[in-house]
Amino acid sequence: MTDRQLTVVDSALWTPLRRHTQARIGLGRAGAALPTRHRLELQAAHAAARDAVHSPFEPEVVAGALAGFSTVRVRSAAPDRLTYLQRPDLGRRLHDTDRCLLPPDAWDVAFVVGDGLSSRAVHEHAAAVVRATAALLPAKWRVAPVVLAEQARVALGDDVARALGAAMVVVLIGERPGMSAADSLGAYLTYAPEPGVTTDADRNCLSNIRPPLGLAYETAAAKLTSLMHRARELGRTGVSLKDDSDGSLPPGTGRVGAEGAKTP
């Protein structure tokens, strides 16, 4: 039996393009397979994605990063991580015993920080987005205490907003990890949410919030604030509301906290 010589293909054409993206492009080949280095990198990325999904949410980490803001901790109806992954519907409902923890009032907006499918993303980015966004809101807006939700899906924000009496809700949640990013945060804005009625078409989404490789906190906050103002004008969010902002910071009020969100 003779040894077969493998042909390694790694075109230099792709090298400058790879500098501009984390996507796995132009990996080349060794025979009919990936080169060993790229195969090992792929396996490591897959392991990181699995870890992000299964790592436990630590609400105290987010609460600590939100010092100066009032926070409330709640759970969804999913009792554990396995059930959460197998029963997405339970992640959309607030746990019955936690409903009484939410102070009802005429809040203009509520922020919900949920673990979603990447607690790492939430631990690293959520507090900074809340702070940057709250700083741009008008001082007259009433902002509910920040809700830290465990085993949460996006639609859990609808149930939370109804319990709080909030006119609109921003859900900051860990996005499903991919092969190039396991720490991506998503922001979902919903005006007049109704549990069981509101659909994904009724929401506006900002994804891939993860500086420096993704959307910056300040840019995300500026876009969110712009969408919030327009949602109040139109009385709706979703496909009827387009993001016309250019990402620049709008004229602000120098707001540092928010009524309800800021600790007395």
From TrEMBL:
What is the stated purpose of this protein?
Catalyzes the deamination of various vicinal amino-alcohols to oxo compounds. Allows this organism to utilize ethanolamine as the sole source of nitrogen and carbon in the presence of external vitamin B12.
Cofactor(s) required, per the database record: adenosylcob(III)alamin
What name is this protein filed under?
Ethanolamine ammonia-lyase small subunit
PANTHER family membership: ETHANOLAMINE AMMONIA-LYASE LIGHT CHAIN, ETHANOLAMINE AMMONIA-LYASE SMALL SUBUNIT
- Pathway noted in the entry: Amine and polyamine degradation; ethanolamine degradation
Q: What is its EC number?
A: 4.3.1.7
Q: Where is this region: Disordered?
A: 238-264
Q: How does it assemble?
A: The basic unit is a heterodimer which dimerizes to form tetramers. The heterotetramers trimerize; 6 large subunits form a core ring with 6 small subunits projecting outwards.
| Catalytic activity, reaction form | ethanolamine = acetaldehyde + NH4(+)
Give the UniProt keywords, A-Z.
Answer: Bacterial microcompartment, Cobalamin, Cobalt, Lyase
Molecular function (GO) terms for this protein are:
cobalamin binding; ethanolamine ammonia-lyase activity
How is the cofactor bound, as the UniProt entry phrases it? Binds between the large and small subunits.
User: What does the similarity note say?
Assistant: Belongs to the EutC family.
